[in-house]
Amino acid sequence: MMTEKMMIRSLGNEPPLLADGRRAPDKREVSLRWLSGTFLTGITSSVLMGVALFAALDGRQQLAIPAEAYASAAAAAHEDTTVVRGGRLIAPAIAAKPSDRAIMEVSTVVHDGEKEVVRRQPFAHVKMTLAANHVATEDYPDFDPLAIFSADEPQPAPQSRTGAIYGSDVESEVSLKTIAFPTGKTGMKMASGLSLEEVEENVRSNGSVLTDGNTQLAALYYVDPRRFSNEDADVDLTAGLSARVLEQNMTVSAPESITPQTEEFADDILPVRVDAPIAKALTDSGYPQQYADGIAGIIAEQLGASDLEKGDVLRIGIIQKGEQAKIIRASVYRGTRHLVTVAVDDKGKYVPGSEPPMLDAIATAFDDNSFAPPPGQNLPRVYDGIFRAALSYGMTKDMTALIIKLLASNVDFQAQLRPTDTLEAFFSVADSAGQATADSELLYVNARFGDTQTRFYRFQDPEDGTVDYFDENGKSIRQFLLRNPVPNGIFKSGFGMRRHPILGFARMHTGVDWAAPRGTAIIAAGNGTVEKAGWDSGGYGNQTIIRHANGYESSYNHQSAIAKGVVPGAKIRQGQVIGWVGTTGESTGPHLHYELIVNGTKVDPLRIRLPGGKSLQGEALAKFEDERKRIDTLLNNQTPDQVASK
């Protein structure tokens, strides 16, 4: 029971303090306010802690190195510090590496009626690392498998605009005309031959013009000067000879052709975006741990610190030979100010070195356009990577779309890019700026995606004048037949015995079913002639049958409609839209029932081994091989004269 003394002890015996005439607050009212404030503070603190914890956990995915990048970075130790450069998610800015992009003047020959016009034209040779953060110079179309296989690509002119690579170099435009050598009798009288005395007299009178300044012409070296001189005259046998004077410590050697195994120097520019140890900055860029630790220790001794600051730039000098890379120099910059350099001496040891010549890449190392996404973020799809890289290297959208179409049979464009995926191309350009135009033509492509490499060359068939692309063996890069005539379709049913959905009993399913919404376009699996186009009373509904070469036929069934112009006898090109998906005939839903018939027998379109495309033979194959050798020689930095046609 609360007594008066206890009440005084609890409330106090001093009167409450009043302000501005207001009444004293009630004790219970003050407690309620305090409780409400404490409760709201606790809720706010919990929310803030939850947000911070979520952000911390969400960022953990950026700390993991993908397994593929880790595997490619691992390498066995070598005493000579030779390392294997692995693929990386952050593409380095490779400076002073001439193989990345080169503009060259090449002599080409174009047939103009009876004449052959030889002229010099600029060509671009580019090697693109697709995983780098390329920025497209213009918008490009979204991925559409139907558009990739469509036949609406620009058809080449009757005569190639670029022409073929000429076997020799020319200084200006030259017109050549070839005529048959006259074998019949001529109406002109033949002059009699010169006597020995007349020949000697001509040499005596014309000998003075057989020199060009101080250089004696080659024709005169085969003549003994004393034979045509006076016996009493003094003869200087060294007259007309010239000597070549070389500077001191200078050696003249024959040019060496560059191959994939030729050693090549490159600078690897690594921007430091956060404070980090030197070794970690190297390993994050793809260098193996054991070599990163060794180089970091040497740099730290010279720098006086083991960590790099945000804004520093690492410059790694490497000698590349194929897939091998040997680190020969390392420099550290703070902004553009050089701090320290270490380099390999003659004994293979790292020692302090002098500052190397400055590169523009040092100042632009932190440009957003020069690097790939940070670790942890997904690389783009193959389709996007090809378009972004090609457009940033000066290729046109039409030329890039052609590359996409030619690679479609071997490359999954919706797959994620790998750090090692590359694309090499050789194409004509407008000028030394290296920008392709609508008149530019693609001559060569070498694409590597994972373990798959696809290489093809442009060639104009001399027989029919058609331009196509062939592999190194002269086989067309295009497929003979496509296995899926509905690029947007979903596979539903395969070839073989199955229970018929309508008839209710087991029956042989003689094709494959591709489900798609009604009205989805159907494309021709290959070039051919329409054999049938119309209604089939046997349950196929609207049916189109196309006859291809070598006894192959393709059948398209249950179409909602057949495209205009697809009639018996019409010529069809691969990728041409021939109809639309429907559910006509004995069908339970919109789909395409696709059949492939070989010599009258229906076979599984997905399992049969299809023949390749067109193969060059005879004289056409020989001319293609000459063209291929000339292109290979140009890309290896050899002179065209070395592979001139015999």
Automatic annotation (TrEMBL):
Parts of the chain that traverse the membrane: 32-57
Required cofactor(s): Zn(2+)
Domain M23ase beta-sheet core: 507-605
UniProt keyword Hydrolase, yes or no: yes
Ranges for region Disordered: 1-22
Domain of life of the source: Bacteria
Any single GO BP term: proteolysis
A GO MF term: metal ion binding
Pfam family, one: Peptidase_M23
UniProt keyword terms in alphabetical order: Hydrolase, Membrane, Metal-binding, Metalloprotease, Protease, Transmembrane, Transmembrane helix, Zinc
Record protein name field: Peptidase M24
